[in-house]
UniProtKB/TrEMBL annotation, chain A:
The keyword Oxidoreductase applies. GO terms for cellular component: membrane. Gene3D superfamilies: NAD(P)-binding Rossmann-like Domain. This is Short-chain dehydrogenase. SUPFAM superfamilies: NAD(P)-binding Rossmann-fold domains. Belongs to the short-chain dehydrogenases/reductases (SDR) family. It holds the Pfam family adh_short.
Automatic annotation (TrEMBL), chain B:
The keyword Flavoprotein applies. Pfam families: FAD_binding_4. Residues 9-176 form the FAD-binding PCMH-type domain. GO terms for molecular function: FAD binding; oxidoreductase activity, acting on the CH-OH group of donors, oxygen as acceptor. Keywords: FAD, Flavoprotein. The keyword Flavoprotein applies. It comes from Mesorhizobium muleiense. It comes from the Bacteria. This is FAD/FMN-containing dehydrogenase.
Amino acid sequence: MTTQPGTALIIGGTSDIGRATALVYAEHGWKVILTARNDEEGLREVNHLLTASQAKAELCRLDILDTESFGPFINSLGTLPNTVVCVVGMLPTQSRAVADTAYASLSLRTNFEGPAILLGMLADRFEKRGTGTIVGVSSVAGNRGRASNYVYGSAKAGLTAFLSGLRGRLWHSGVRVVTVMPGFVRTRMTDGMKLSPFLTAEPDEVAEAIYEAAESRHRDIIYVRRSWRLVMGVIAAMPEGVFKRVKF
Amino acid sequence: MELSGWGRYPRHSSNVVSPGSPRELAMLQRHIPTYVARGNGRSYGDAGIGAGVTLDMRRFDRMKGFDETSGLLTVEAGVLLADLIDRFLPRGFFPAVVPGTRFVTIGGMIAADVHGKNHHWVGGFGDHVEALKLMFPSGQTVRCSRDDNSDLFKATIGGMGLTGTIVEATIRLIKVETGWMRQNTVRAENILSAVQLLTANEGASYAVAWVDCLSRGNALGRSLVYLGEHVSLDALQERNPGAPIYPNTRGRGIAVPLDAPGFLLNRHSIRAFNALRYARARTKDELVTWQSYFFPLDGLDQWNRLYGRRGFLQYQFVLPHQTASRVLPEIMGEIATTRDPSFLAVLKTLGKGGGQLSFPMPGVTLALDFPVSDSIFSLLDRLDRLVVEGGGRLYLAKDARQRPETFEAGYPNLSVFRQQRRAIGAEGRLASMLSKRIAV
């Protein structure tokens, strides 16, 4: 059964996946609240939503690193959204993340600390209300730490574990938690990378998958491209003695 | 990287950068010595290839605001016409002018001042632009319209991106009651009767003729004339009850997966196809969807690959009414006797152009496709001389090979245009392979 349209809060609404997700919700008749760190960019997206879809849309400024501001931010929302989708993330350059601790910390905080704390706070409110859907966009990079991207992967592993625990804690309270594994996505984040066409999704495809998992098919964990399940199954099955020798 | 237009000829190397915001665009423009903006790469020749750097504007894809009462829509320059139609046709609005493909950007449509099958009475796309936001090489942005900076506005409509980068535009949409078109098909025995039919039907909202370039003798340039009208809701319900009011397929149709071998489109296969098409056509009156009326080729993704690896040339000229009846048969005769067949030939009438370098002038225009071959260039040089001698000109958005003399002869406002370029500091900074080739 498809959920009745309500209000969707999109955290990271100016990212390519965030923009696409906001538009899908708007097209299904939802009111959309976008958060952005940069007002100018946020305004471009909100105007686009209003013009392209005729939906109701609002902009809120939010910096995912500013955990102190989360409480006032949630209070400022007025009514609590029905669904929150968090698409915030950054893909650090691994070599720099190894050498530069401030940069590594920025990645860990953007990919894990900020999203986990914010979603945790919203989860408490949703639990009190007794309804709500929380969607966290994590990454297959978090399934197993690889030599080439473990700074990013470990933060996403943290987020995946956090969402998994949250789902267990809340399932009997009527609040649902969805973990989304997009795999490779053709976005600004992956611009210039050579990506396999079979494993790479378009932002629109991810957005449709998010909406479907959250509002109509009610899934817990989704891989946007199914082929990733197989790839990650193989990676997970490798003995550590072999895995540590594989360069990828 | 190697870039080309839709015709895949010529190919030039150019550095492509894709700014994501006006701020980023301004910064880039200040630092790059020479560049030009590119939309979705659907101009046929070298207009969208920067001499040095090419600014890919497709990330400027946000819509900004719409007013239902006036039909005025403000969008960023990289918004695709296809997306605009997807969003606004279901709300009862349609662009006043559309070219033959919907996979073009709004900025590109303005830069080329594209025309549709209704130029004879509504003008070009530029005539439905209310205002523009233009960024100079300095990074400074100005608004221009028919009232503010009107000279610059007229230089930018059809100015091929050479008077600044179009960042944003406000355009006027028209109201339609359905997404259906009423299409009347009429046969014309030769090129002159096709011109007569088009001129006699200037009261029709849309009119275009498909021309068979390989017929000879008395049948030289025999044609099928298609007249079109938007269908009202009442008419749709009467003639096609139960049909969706706004038939909308978002899909892009089937794709041409590979480069076709060059011999696929030869004079024999085309002659057979044309004969069949002409023979099967009857005078008829039918309802067709907006896609099949306006964008028949969009159903075949990457159809440009049908011409093989060497690519193809589009040749579109306009001739004033006074000389058209004399020069058109001469041109058709030249084409019919060469070994280079034109698969697609489209004839329309045009009205007055809206910008300084706009292609349209009151007269008749013919667009032709030729696969690139060793012999094609000398044929087109001969056609150039006939066009210039007839007081006509070539369409810059399709051009890949004309000489500066041909260009200069056809565009009398060129000196005013050059003055505008000097005034905003565009000379030497804003340049495409087209503008270098024809010495704008």
